[in-house]
Design goal:
The protein is an alpha/beta fold and 290 residues long. It is built from ten helices and eleven strands. The longest helix has 14 residues.
């Protein structure tokens, strides 16, 4: 079937690592319900084709990592999962991104509701210039969520492993928190509207190793309640936290002299790091890329 073209409305890789991951825990459940079913996804910015022909499935209560060099389309694909690319005027999408069998780009789909169900945490912590309490309460208030706001804020901060650190200063500015605390606050803010999915775009790239470890521990703790998709340049992080791993790279269009992102391989993380099917994947995860 030829993908229906839709126009959306406007809203360093460290390859020197000698990666030998020890992926802990059981293999991901292949019978888990499919949350996202991506079929022949291509994304354009104007005439430029940024990503082409991506096919993959994301299953419930698993951590899926997108890895690959800069400019290969990892974040572009991630942003398709909650229609964040709608905010780019020239963006358009071909193919389908089904969420529980519903095409997210289908007629009548409300992008605001999509983003409530599918939250996002960005590369750089971006707390609002408000109190810690108001940062977490902002989303539920805007969404008109009923209930005890104090309870919602406490529950969200506990889920983000932040409550004990901030419970005595909820009315102080979030801008005075450390970078790691701010990122966990952003996670709490995303959780406050009770999403099913959390998208994370390099959430630890601006953090020190201790703060990074806390975010990774948090992902492991909450994946029993949420489905998580993470973009990371850190091979060791992908090996430590993810159940499934997708490797993207670029191919050169010799006619236009541009690079388009493609999905090379998608499999269980332990397979991707120990016995990948594609030589390009092995070269990347072992530091021989390029």
């Amino acid at each position: 079937m030829t993908p229906e073209q839709r126009t959306v409305d406007q809203p360093e890789v460290d390859t020197s690592l000698d990666v030998s991951p020890a992926v802990a825990g059981a293999s991901p459940d292949p019978s888990a319900p499919i949350v996202f079913d991506v079929d022949d996804l291509s994304v354009f910015y104007g005439a430029f084709r940024a990503v082409r022909d991506v096919n993959l499935e994301v299953r419930r209560n698993q951590i899926t990592a997108f890895i690959g060099p800069s400019g290969c389309g990892k974040t572009t694909v991630l942003r398709c999962f909650n229609r964040m690319n709608d905010l780019i005027e020239t963006a358009r999408v071909e193919g389908t991104v089904d969420y529980h069998g519903v095409d997210l780009y289908g007629e009548g789909i409300n992008p605001v509701e999509v983003r409530r169900r599918i939250g996002m945490v960005f590369q750089k912590p971006n707390p609002f210039p408000k109190s810690i309490y108001d940062n977490v309460a902002f989303g539920p208030r805007v969404a008109g969520i009923k209930g005890d706001m104090d309870e919602i804020v406490e529950r969200s901060l506990r889920r983000a492993a932040l409550w004990d650190e901030v419970k005595d200063r909820l009315k102080t500015s979030a801008m005075g928190m450390s970078g790691g605390q701010q990122q966990r606050l952003c996670i709490a803010r995303a959780l406050a509207v009770d999403p099913e999915v959390i998208l994370m775009d390099e959430p630890c790239s601006a953090l020190d190793p201790i703060a990074t470890g806390r975010i990774e521990d948090l992902m492991e703790e909450i994946k029993s309640e949420y489905t998580i998709v993470i973009v990371t340049h850190n091979m060791q992080q992908a090996a430590r936290v993810s159940d499934m791993c997708a490797f993207f790279t670029t191919e050169v269009n010799e006619v236009s002299d541009t690079r388009t992102g493609i999905l090379v391989e998608y499999d269980r993380t332990e397979v991707m790091f120990s016995n990948p099917n594609d030589q390009r994947t092995e070269n990347y995860v072992t530091g021989r890329f390029g």
